[in-house]
Amino acid sequence: MKMKLIPLLSLLLLPLWGHAAKVGEPAPAFTLTDSNGQTHSLADFRGKTVVLEWTNAECPFVKKHYDSDNMQSQQRAATAGGVVWLVINSGAPGKQGHVGGAEANRIQGDWGAAQTAYLIDADGKVGRAYDAKTTPHMYVIDGDGVLRYNGAIDSIPSADQADILKAVQYVPAALMAVASGQKVDPALTRPYGCSVKY
Amino acid sequence: MRMMTALGLMILFQSGWADSARTDHLQSQLISEHSSVRAGGVLMLGLLLEHDPGWHTYWKNPGDSGLETRMQVRLAEEEHTVAFLWPLPERVPLDAQLVNFGYKGRVVLPTVVPLPANLPEGPLQIEASASWLVCEEACIPGRADYSLTLTVGEAVIPDPRWQEDFARSARRQPRQASAGSGFSVEGDRVRLRLPRALFPESPGSWVFFPETAEVVRNSGEPRWRRQGRDWVAVLERNEFFTSAPAQFDWLLVRGDDGIRVSADPD
Question: Residues A122, A126, A132, A137: what is their CA dihedral angle, to the nearest 10 degrees?
């Protein structure tokens, strides 16, 4: 009975399923324009580890990690070690947190952010391809283009800066594991924050 | 940070602890079902939330974003992290793929706190701190501290101001379904099984809420099919699924009626 039902259902539901961005599989390819008008493709960074950070400067969870300097210090440490750090904004025009390039540069400049590039994904296609849920939502892609981490910035879902020191910061741990050829653990966590404003 | 805390404490002392608080887009209050309670009994407390129109706070499983509401209660020098008796939530869809679970309008999140047997008769001071995330499209984290004074005495006396709120919350508690339901994870899918004896008619008109997070995709809505003695539905596995839980709790809700199904691994 079970054997009959499942194949039938999978045929019916196939078009709805098959989401991209699975840990252990190639990360979805993309090309986006950054806040300075330059285009970047994921493929440009082959051989380097890439961090993706979904952002919305008006979201209190993003503010938690920038006002405390947690995000910037992770960005500085990662990029100093040769990691490419891409901030992505998938906010639709008219929605909270959507910005143009100049505004993005001002925000990140005020925060002293140290990303490699700030990418604008106004139609949300890249966000959807990665199934980005929240701001922040973090991904780590290794030099072979394989997704190695997908999830929360850290282990304590809250908007309280005081929790940062008590939390496990997942991205630096994932970067260390990738750099030393170890298994990333955890590789998949539930992200927390504001919803991405597609 | 320390300055901020000191400042916060000063403001707190100046304004005094109140039983209600007005914060961004939310009026909240610590309430008790009874104004007079007995030592050794239990206290039915509630966090009364009145959301501005269009704004919501979150259920135990907040869904694809958001945070569950939390509360700490202090009484008789004991601190309790409360487990709310979550009333039936609402689906708050953000778009076709993202969904949250939470509360709008006026709702009480009740909780039961045991009272020590050696409580002296007379006034009983209760303090509580709650935190939440209130969202419309934008989200604002909120927190408040409350203080409430009840009487410890011989008689248990209901507080007439809150009977209706507690009664509504009690009506909207899920009933626990008897055993016999199951789930199994098959690749990227999760198969749910529900004995037809529980639902002689199709559960299709009941709204599904995953209470255990990270098992099925939050936006999934089961299409039940009859299979032998069961109703069966297949849902997409949660994006952040890592391993099957020992028990998968989900709710089926229709109006004020809700059933909690605690499914065992098949």
Answer: -80
